Amino acid sequence: xxxxxxxxxxxxxxxxxxxxxxxxxxxxxxxxxxxxxxxxxxxxxxxxxxxxxxxxxxxxxxxxxxxxxxxxxxxxxxxxxxxxxxxxxxxxxxxxxxxxxxxxxxxxxxxxxxxxxxxxxxxxxxxxxxxxxxxxxxxxxxxxxxxxxxxxxxxxxxxxxxxxxxxxxxxxxxxxxxxxxxxxxxxxxxxxxxxxxxxxxxxxxxxxxxxxxxxxxxxxxxxxxxxxxxxxxxxxxxxxxxxxxxxxxxxxxxxxxxxxxxxxxxxxxxxx
Amino acid sequence: xxxxxxxxxxxxxxxxxxxxxxxxxxxxxxxxxxxxxxxxxxxxxxxxxxxxxxxxxxxxxxxxxxxxxxxxxxxxxxxxxxxxxxxxxxxxxxxxxxxxxxxxxxxxxxxxxxxxxxxxxxxxxxxxxxxxxxxxxxxxxxxxxxxxxxxxxxxxxxxxxxxxxxxxxxxxxxxxxxxxxxxxxxxxxxxxxxxxxxxxxxxxxxxxxxxxxxxxxxxxxxxxxxxxxxxxxxxxxxxxxxxxxxxxxxxxxxxxxxxxxxxxxxxxxxxx
Lengths: 272, 272
Hints:
Chain A is an alpha+beta fold and 272 residues long. The first copy, chain A, is 26% helix and 24% strand. Chain A has seven helices and eleven strands.
């Protein structure tokens, strides 16, 4: 039995949502990657910012909703976000965090109990896992999942709209599709504006400043067939890169691939 | 004052819908091309088939809804289709018709009074004029309209699903767009399944059997910029080509660009 299946089974036995059970497991040090855990439930990117900078970051997200779709946020100093999960404690419920000081990642703790401050504001941003589930449910193949690697991501020449010290290029993720599949993927992801929504670009990677599709700036390269076109979505790495570039004295994010699992269901994010 | 503006003015004076007034004008021999006439109202492709073949053609349309979206049809021998227009008479209300015998176009009359038969069934199929209006309303440029020519159309290697003697390749129309515009065009036209709906292909024309984008099989070539990709929609020329290839003893279509103007509004065809 896989870890994922075991978590699911224990959740069923306890009568808890699989998402809630997963958070309890991470809280007590069990489990690791959130890939494939609590399928059907929304996973989120995490950004925890001191209140002094939170207003400008909040505006940055509002101004750049495709890379930074807010699905939940906390009051200052409050580690709970009831709208995203019963009993959710942002200090303990993510498998691994990254602590940033002056733009440098200085630590990767498994909880924030030693780092928590009364001025911290938590932002939870939508993640492509949700729309990938919808694409796969429609029968569309996701290349990096087939290949067992990370999605390729690229810095583009598309400038985000700046807010205060938060500024920088949009980072995009890429999934190759045959043309008819690409059209279907536009339709499906359009239904999910809370998790990056429709693609921002397709074909012609050089038009958005991608010189070599085989050399992603983040993640792993995947092959693009001669009968396929690359399709690009705004990516949740954008806010992480922007936070690092802003060189805040202090900030926290999740570690890549180790997300916050919420009690929201992916299907409930569909606008139609 | 243009003919179109004059028609609009006289319609307003008579208290008729502009679409109804346009049909009355065509009925009495006034006016010509339907391009730009009764803006906002649905124009349709026309196929008039003897009842003996109408069942198979109806199934062909049902099996191939993207090139052949039915927006109205008549009872056998009945020249009226009340759902498409008060007072509509299919024998007189289209500016020009094409009469086909054994797959050959033999006449282009301006009415069907001498050709009408009690066994004729009329099919009215959606037309790209409706979705082009929606694209332009969103600010997307339509190249062939900018260039003042006909949309380029191509026979593809996409086989329609056959029904009886009706069979053949899908014909597509092409409009070039920048990638972000192409994504928007997918979204907008998805809202209009009754007028061909979303594109069937984009980029990589050779994948659907188009050897030279600059040599359309119908219509006129238009330039495709190096920063653009060609976007392909199923086209209402498909059923006309299929009807000709079926070599029916007798059939009638509209003459290209001289459509049936209905009282339906384009906006009412939007499914969302």
